[in-house]
Each structure stands twice: as structure tokens, then as C-alpha cells.
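Work package 3, deliverable 3.1, input record:
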Amino acid sequence: MALQERREREKEEMKEKILSAASAIVREEGYENLSIRKIANKIEYSPTIIYHYFVDKDEIIYYLMQRGYRKIVQAITCANSTSDTPEGHLKDMTRNYIDVALKMPDEYMSAQLSKSPKVIKHTSMLYKGASENKPIIGALQQCVKQINKDINVDDDKCEIIAQCIIVSTMGLVIKLIVENGIDDEHRNRLIEHFVNETVLKIAKGE
Amino acid sequence: MALQERREREKEEMKEKILSAASAIVREEGYENLSIRKIANKIEYSPTIIYHYFVDKDEIIYYLMQRGYRKIVQAITCANSTSDTPEGHLKDMTRNYIDVALKMPDEYMSAQLSKSPKVIKHTSMLYKGASENKPIIGALQQCVKQINKDINVDDDKCEIIAQCIIVSTMGLVIKLIVENGIDDEHRNRLIEHFVNETVLKIAKGE
DNA sequence: TATATTATTTAACACTGTTAATTTGTAAGA
DNA sequence: TCTTACAAATTAACAGTGTTAAATAATATA
């Protein structure tokens, strides 16, 4: 039946319409000002219709976060590293991560700080074996391994180091976002020190 | 006039009553479930009376955060470090910070992530000269200086290193709180690695 | 005791997310 | 083409939120 297909397509289009309206509101007024009624107003429908396409407001927020976060993950894992040394690669990855995250602070914060199980499924990174499921941890672990190829550092430890790197970088990003209006010069010095020294030191196994 | 004094005292008592009721609600149901009406119900007054003692709900939340955060800062700056080496002291401070913060996750998160100017005034740490105003950065900076007493590392750089230490530690704590239910063994390995290795490496100037 | 001041309450406004019942629109079968 | 079935969309309502203005109760001053 072609009907079912069209229905499905229309449903998907409506979902998209709702999500992009929601996205616009978030962009303009922030997450805390997103409301079902505002979305409805924007798409010129009654508020309740939204519940035909999403179970609740949290689901809408979940989708928005997922999109934002996917962009971040992509930007980082597909990093075009100009450097050929593992140290240079780690630097590039870290700088890239910080830049991308700071460009979409709202999406980054809400994705990273959400305690919703659905979101955590995507953002969790501190479990054993994360390097096999989470591209970022995987990439970092490989990088750490390369950096320490001379001395003997087992995969488990490399994973833990990778996790230390990611939480540290997240801490920097989060604090830079929360603590807005930092003097540009100091801000840049801090980022440069973190990228060029801190991260490399954390990566070193011994 | 003794009257004015008593009035003032009674006003302070009422404020305290409101704050401790609010605190209890937060403890029992979390920040997101705190409401003016619930507070009013708990202290057996009408909701509007609260606006005689606090300008709005944000002010109440601000006071709650301030209290929680003060506890954290105290627990860290008054750390009873058993060690006499600067490295040992840094370890103790870091472990202490993580332990205390993880014991009051709600207060920690809301204080650390609030963008309210009032709160930021207390929690901001990434500006130049923070080591002179913020006890934590100050203590960390001194520690870093001691660790690097052999090589020449100027105060400015020590401050930046201190800031890298604090954001990294915060990142770990925040991620541990958000990502609840991590396997205890892995969690402890992670914390131990961070305290015993990561932080020390970040602290090293060269 | 009357007046002024302060504490407290009542009622209301403008929001919020969400549900049940109802109406409108559309496709399929007789 | 008309009726039946189903999906889409709306209206009305509930229970909750923060907050304000106006009215009332309580208390201190003169």
C-alpha cells in the first residue's frame, strides 16, 4: 500500500516541522523557554497535536539534544588532523573538541548534563569497554596507545587515560561556557595551555 | 530600640524557616521539584508570604546553593592533609574535593552550573588573578609552585595550571554525578588514576 | 484608645505540561 | 456515490507553576 508510505512520510514531515520549530525557539530563547504551546504557535497548530507525534516534551528535547550532540561527535571523530605524530593528533582532536563544543554551548551542555537514560546511553563514557562503543573514547585510546608505544601500557590503562582526558576537556568546556565573559586573552592562554601541555601530560603513561 | 532588633531577629528566623523547608524539599525531591507552594505548605503559611522575605524563587535557590557550596569550599580549603610533600598535599586536596562534591551532588551541580551572576561571582575561577580571590585556586597555585620549586615557573603560569587542575577535577566530578550507576570498581580505578597520576602530571610545569 | 506599620492572606493573572472527549478531514468498501 | 472506518486536529479542562495587587489581621506607637 502506497498510502501507508505516504502517511508515514507525512508523519515524519510533521515531526520534522515540530522539531525545527522547537530548535528555532531554543536557538532564540534557550532551552528553558521552550514550551509546547510556543511550538504549537510557531507551526500554527493546537498544542495537543504535538502529543500525536511525541510522547512528551522530554522526547522533543531528547531529539534536539541528539542532533546537536551528533554534530559535535562528527566534528570530532572526522577531525582533519594535519599532524602525523600522535601527539599532534591528540592536540588537534582536543582543540577541535573545544572549538566545536564552544560553538554550540546549549546543545553541548544539555546533552552532556542530561540525566535522562536515553541521553545517557549516548553520552556515557566512563564504563569499562567504552573505547569499543564510544568513538571519542576509542579515538583517544588509540592516540594514547600510540603516544606510549615505547613503554608498555596496556589497553585498559589507555582507556582510563582516555577517560581522564575526556572528563578534563569537558570540565574546561563546561566551565568556559558557564563562566561566560572571561577576558579573551586569559581565555585563550588557558585553552592553549590545556591543549598544548595539560592534555599531553595526561596522555603520558608513565 | 529593642523592637527593631527583635523584628530583625524574627525576620531572620522566618527566612531561616523558609530556607530549611526549601532545603528539606530539595533533599527529598531534588531541585527540580522545589516550588513556592510546597515551601509554604511545609511551613504552614500561605505561598505569598515568602515574597516578603525573598524577592523571588531564584533568591531562595541562590541561598541554598551558597550554603552547599560554602560547605564544599570549607571542606577543601580546611583539608587536614596528612602528607608533608606538596605532591601528597595536592593528592589529598584533589581526593578531598572529589569526595566532598560527590557527597552533595545536587548542591555541587547547581552551584557549579548556575549562570546567575550572583552565583558566578562565587564560583568563577578562570579569570586572571583568581588565585588571590578564590581560596581553592589560591591553594592549588601554591601547591603547584611548591611542586615546581626546582624549575622556574612564574606565578601566572602556576595560576593557569591551577585552573587547569580545577576544571579537570570538576569535569571528572560532574561526569561521575551525571553518569550515575557506574560500576564501582571501574569508578574507583578512574578516581585513583586521576588523583594519583593525572593531577600530578597536570601540576608539573615542564 | 486611635493611628500607623507590619505580617499575612485571598484572589487572581498568566503561564506550564498533559489528558479526555469531540470534531474535522480523508481513505476504503459497498 | 454514500456510508463506514480511521486518522488528524481541536476544544475544554485539570493540576500545577511563579508572581502580583488588594484586602485583612496583628502589633507597636502616640
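The interface with chain B takes residues 109, 112-115, 120, 123-128, 157, 160-161, 163-164, 166-172, 174-176, 178-180, 182-183, 186-187, 189-190, 193-194, 198, 201-202, 204 of chain A (CB under 8 Å).
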